[in-house]
Design a protein that fits this description.
It is a single-pass membrane protein; Single-pass type II membrane protein. By secondary structure, the protein is α/β, with parallel strands linked by helices. The protein has a domain at about 55-130: Nucleotidyltransferase, domain 5 (2-Layer Sandwich). Helices cover about 35% and strands about 15% of the residues. It has three helices and five strands. Strands 3-2-1-4-5 form a five-stranded mixed sheet. A hairpin with a 5-residue loop joins strand 1 and strand 2. The protein is rod-shaped and about 105 Å long. The protein starts with 12 loop residues before the first helix and ends in a 9-residue tail after the last strand. About 10% of the residues are buried.
Length: about 140
């Protein structure tokens, strides 16, 4: 009687079949997955809102808030809890009122997000961030 030799090779054909099936599944489902997009503000050329109509929400380096209307020279200090009320008052006069957020560059990013959240909760629909172009920084 003859002894059977053990086979010391791995049959990879079933693994290749499984990999090809998975590849086809991923290729079919990948376009269906909804991808999130982030619209970041641009400092390049764009069409900013008319600054003569806009109300500036200023956030100073120490975190203090101020409102400046119609690009006037004087700004009115506002506490954090008063900001929402001031924005609602401006929107009561003009529902399409544009707002510009001018925050100090050294400010924590969370402070800017807090202002944007407050504005959204107040019902602001037109809001932009004030940026400084690279050529004017020099």
């Amino acid at each position: 009687m003859r002894q059977r030799r053990l086979m010391n090779q791995i049959n990879v054909v079933p693994y290749i079949d499984v990999m090809l099936v998975l590849l086809v599944i991923f290729m079919v489902t990948a376009p269906m997955i909804q991808q999130g997009t982030i619209n970041v503000p641009s400092a390049g050329a764009g069409t900013p809102p008319p600054q003569s109509e806009a109300i500036f929400i200023e956030v100073k380096a120490d975190g203090a808030y101020a409102l400046r209307a119609n690009n006037s020279g004087s700004s009115r200090p506002v506490r954090r809890d008063q900001l929402s009320t001031a924005l609602k008052d401006a929107l009561a006069k003009n529902p399409e009122q544009p707002f510009l957020v001018a925050a100090d560059s050294k400010l924590d990013y969370q402070k800017v997000i807090d202002v944007l959240e407050t504005a959204r909760d107040a019902g602001v629909r037109k809001i932009s961030l004030v940026t400084q172009s690279a050529t004017s920084q020099k």
